[in-house]
Amino acid sequence: MPELAPYAVDDGNSRGRAHAEPRPKARSEFQRDRDRIVHSTAFRRLEYKTQVFVNHEGDLFRTRLTHSIEVAQIARSVARSLQLNDDLAEAIALAHDLGHTPFGHAGQDALNECMQGHGGFEHNLQSLRIVDRLEERYGAFDGLNLMFETREGILKHCSPARAREIGDLGRRFLEGRRPSLEAQICNLADEIAYNNHDVDDGLRSGVLTLEQLQEITLFARHAAEVDAEFPHIAGRRRVHETIRRMIDAQVTDLLAESARRIVAAAPASLADVNNAPELIGFTEAMKQENHALKSFLREHLYRHFEVLRMTAKARRVIQDLFGAFVADQRLLPPQYQAMAAAASIQRATADYIAGMTDRYSMKEHRRLFAVSEF
Ligand code: MG
Asked: Nearest to residue 194, comparing CAs of 301, 90, 77, 86?
């Protein structure tokens, strides 16, 4: 293993776990975190949760699980190349979407509306809640008892009010400090992964067309390169060869620009990283190209009528389920009734619904509302 930079997170400079545990025998602390995440129930549920296209619409579209694996793969390569802790980057990436509801952002928005006046719902905070409290796997503690820096990386953003409530982990949002470079990498690896796989899935579904994508310079430039190099290439192979080059260009840009910023800031320790401006980032030119791609996807994919139909349906499923459980908590499974007694019926219901896969939420909806099914 290449030597880590002095400002990388490692077992020695980490702020450790909330509950002290013996050191792992044959792994680093962050490998242990990664393994705990992979073994968690919430992680397995990602397989049946929507990224953009609902899970049952087609077998080849990204799910939250394959998205998370793509983010981890990009984050690990970037971290290793910059002599940072790739085990930490992998752990954060695999956990970053654990808190997502069924039906992607549509589900989270619907649940957040239901939770107005009861503390709201935000998938990023829910990811932290899962690893800190909701997973039931260990005798000695609730949650996964992850290392501070893994939890810090999972919590990407946080309102000042919420930051005040969550203690140590919230402090950086109030004091304007940055998380580790490994966490910063995961944010951008997430962006690289979804911008590119959404182009791929959008084309595969027929919602996006190659003609439309010609207006995106990042796509058009690499497609032209592919056509020049392989004059007879066509169909899926041309799309894949183009997207592969787009990812490579974004990762290469990110590596060069981040290395440049690190040299300029010359951090000597993890504390220097926390107090420096963001050191992981794209060049201004690539940032603008990414922005154009993102706006394009928002307009042509995320707001396409077929995607919006799914959004509308997801909203109804989640509102109906939430309403039914809050009106009569005896309809909740017993473990959630106990959680309602300990917290509130709304929070227990939100935890239950957020944990559902797409198809489980539809099944629950049928069980509660379809007169033909019991
Ligand atoms: Mg993500």
From this structure: 301
What letters, b where the CB count within 10 A reaches 16 and e where it falls short, cover 54-83? Answer: bbeeeeebbbbbbbbbbbbebbbbbbbbbb
Ligand 1 center from residue 126 Cα (angstroms) = 13
Q: Are residues 316 and 300 in the same domain?
A: no
Instruction: Give the distance (Å) from ligand 1 centre to CA of residue 10.
Output: 24
In angstroms, what is the span from residue 95 Cα to ligand 1's centroid? Answer: 9
**Tens digits of pLDDT across the chain (374 residues):** 568 999 999 999 999 999 999 999 999 999 999 999 999 999 999 999 887 776 666 777 889 999 999 999 999 999 999 999 999 999 999 999 999 999 988 899 999 999 999 999 999 999 999 999 999 999 999 999 999 999 999 999 988 988 998 889 999 999 999 999 999 999 999 999 999 999 999 999 899 999 999 999 999 999 999 999 999 999 999 999 999 999 999 999 999 999 999 999 999 999 999 999 999 999 999 999 999 999 999 999 988 888 888 889 999 999 999 999 999 999 999 999 999 999 999 999 999 999 999 999 999 999 999 887 66
Query: How far is the centre of ligand 1, averaged over its atoms, from the C-alpha of 234 (Å)?
Result: 30
- Note the pTM of the prediction, 2 decimals: 0.96
Q: Which residues pair with 50 in a beta bridge?
A: 63
Which of 308, 323, 338 corresponds to the end of one domain? 308
> Do the domain assignments include residue 14?
no
| Ligand 1 centroid, distance to 6 Cα (angstroms) | 28
